[in-house]
Amino acid sequence: MSTPPAPARPARFSLAVRDSSTMLRRNLLHARRYPSLTLNLLLTPIMLLLLFVYIFGDTMSAGIGGGDRSDYIAYIVPGLLLMTIGSTTIGTAVSVSNDMTEGIIARFRTMAIHRPSVLVGHVVGSVLQSVMSVVLVGAVAVAIGFRSTDATVLEWLAAFGLLVLFALALTWIAVGMGLVSPNAEAASNNAMPLILLPLLSSAFVPVDTMPGWFRPIAEYQPFTPAIETLRGLLLGTGIGHNGWLAVAWCVGLAVLGYLWSTSKFNSDPK
Greater confidence, 195 or 70? Predict the structure, then answer.
């Protein structure tokens, strides 16, 4: 009696990669055709950068013990880069919510495609958009005086890896928010903490200068250790225990967002 052939796993993997690539192209085309949402979200960190540097720069620099405005530019840029990621992922939540409410997901479910590829396309597309947005905000920061001359090549690579990992974590959370939102407006509102949390972190002032009752809010959240780690990497200073805290937050949020998103996506009516 002959043994039935084993499933063609390489073929399944090839199918998953093909379908995920198709969904990625779809999401990138949507972002290119409707750039207003991404541009509006990108303007928030750029406006904050210009506001705090040119309006409050000298005063804030003196408050953190810096010599001039350039010291404060170096201080706030890492936080604004991570805020840029949070802003970009709001667009992901809106996009996912639109797909769910406009019926395209139901259409995909009737087609012979790899089911997880729908979410993978959103996630990879959002991470790529986040990296491009960070590059644009970083270019503005360099244009107004930010310099990272003390960082080594290894620290630059670690900083880039942290930004990508942070974008991946927030994107999975944003996908989950989009899946549970009844419409695009609700998705935008649900994802708003991704912009508000950096304002309550060490992005603009050191945690030890905050009132005692407020410090736990700034300390025990994902943005502060990530900001302190990125700041240390870009400026060539120590990062202490913030490095492993930032990675732990990123991995934990990514796993939580993935489980939440896939559970919600698979539980919807087929």
Answer: 195
